[in-house]
Amino acid sequence: MSYTIVVGNKNYSSWSMRAWLVIDHFGLDYEEDLVPLDEADTRARLLAYSPAGKVPTLIDRGRAVWDSLAIIEYLAERHPDLPIWPADPMERALARSLSAEMHSGFQALRSACPMNLRKTFPFRRRGGRRAERDVARIEALIGDRIARSGGPFLFGEWGAVDAMYAPVTARLTGYSWPVSKVTLSYCAAVQQEASYRRWYKAGVVEPWVIPADEVK
What domains, with CATH codes, occur in the chain? Predict the structure, then answer.
């Protein structure tokens, strides 16, 4: 079976990254359609794939699934032999909880520090206390999970939850947040994973610039 995964700019689109990492990491057969964001025809091109008109979108047998977490869940159901989620029911539930927390939370950090793989900034306070609370919570959950799993990933082996947290590792390192050695080690492990490297290498050479995501 072959999927089509529709993604936005790899330099900026954290939502696209999450779903793409799962489909690529687990060696599924897919074709990619990259639709540059913030262009005159972006909306029309995306609406041709799904009524949401957003990225990412997965096409399977002519039907669309959109939203990064929904795509990951769909792939897990379609490929139950793959360790997309932990095998243990409680661990799986916890991994889904952490993924959902990332999916709906940490808005202050996301707003203050858009993903921009081409840039590395010296640290300065961005997003105020709310962003600092976001980082503190991320550090706490990483520290807890690495202590329990032994690392290098949140549940030992790389899985969907690490795909969900991959963009935030880019934010932590890209904006030079002062974080613990455990957090930095986790960020390094995620960013050295082969699929992340493929995404990163494609993203940093893209020609498109989205001014709204080019913070100073």
Answer: 3-82 (3.40.30.10), 89-199 (1.20.1050.10)
